[in-house]
Design a protein that fits this description.
Elements lengths: L7 H12 L21 H9 L17 H5 L12 H6 L17 H11 L6 H15 L1
Length: 139
């Protein structure tokens, strides 16, 4: 975004290309940020209070925004369904009633964090693409 002052066309193309890679970032997976130590406690507290939608989108959609808007957003601004991750993975949720500053000592948080760390990250589309290319080259 800041590069637009140097070359607006390249900045626009790069921003568009980067936004194409948001396909893997679903509303539910943003909930993994509850267990990320680089996400500050204030943002985690905000994530707990965000109300969910009945029919959330399958993927996050980014509108064309200014540099200031991007810089002022946090993880909590990108989702309204962070807590659905707990239901899907059957993770304990009682710690969500406490301030994030107390989570580290909470047994439910520790158990949920341990389970969240075992979630395997798989890029199915890329793996399928590679397999398809390999099959094509073999024929």
């Amino acid at each position: 975004m800041a590069y637009s002052s140097v070359n607006a066309a390249i900045s626009e193309a790069a921003s568009r290309k980067l936004s194409d890679h948001l396909w893997y970032l679903s509303e539910k997976l943003v909930g993994l940020a509850f267990f990320d130590s680089s996400v500050c406690r204030e943002i985690k507290d905000k994530m707990v209070t965000v109300d969910g939608e009945n029919d959330p989108p399958k993927r996050l959609k980014m509108k064309k925004v200014s540099s200031a808007e991007v810089e002022n957003n946090s993880v909590a601004d990108f989702t309204k369904n962070t807590k659905t991750l707990f239901t899907k993975l059957r993770l304990p949720q009682t710690f969500l009633q406490l301030p994030a500053s107390q989570w580290a000592e909470n047994r439910d948080y520790q158990a949920a964090a341990a389970l969240a760390r075992t979630v395997a990250v798989v890029n199915d589309h890329a793996e399928r693409g590679v397999a398809l290319i390999q099959q094509f080259q073999e024929t």
